[in-house]
Design a protein that fits this description.
The chain is of the alpha+beta class. It is built from two helices and four strands. The protein starts with a helix and ends in a 9-residue tail after the last helix.
């Protein structure tokens, strides 16, 4: 998924934060993130369903980058 697509989804959550919309992101290896906007603070709550952890991001850019990194982990490079 492209970075700009993730940003668009998160922007929608922020725009309708009083409605309690959730967005699900799945990685290729089967891990799942659930994202919801906290109506009072406007923060984006991201839950990793595989490990049961949650993070709150107060900026759209930070949340977008976190999700992008989660979906597209860097492949370690081996020097030959």
């Amino acid at each position: 998924m492209k970075l700009e697509s993730i940003r668009t989804f998160l922007s929608t959550l922020l725009e309708y934060r009083g409605v309690r919309i959730t967005q699900t992101f799945n990685s290729d290896d089967g891990k799942t993130l659930i994202v919801q906007c906290e109506p009072n603070s406007g923060g984006l709550i991201i839950r990793d369903m595989a490990i049961g952890m949650s993070w709150e991001y107060t900026t759209l850019d930070e949340a977008t980058q976190f999700i992008y990194s989660y979906l597209h982990p860097e492949t370690p490079k081996v020097n030959a």
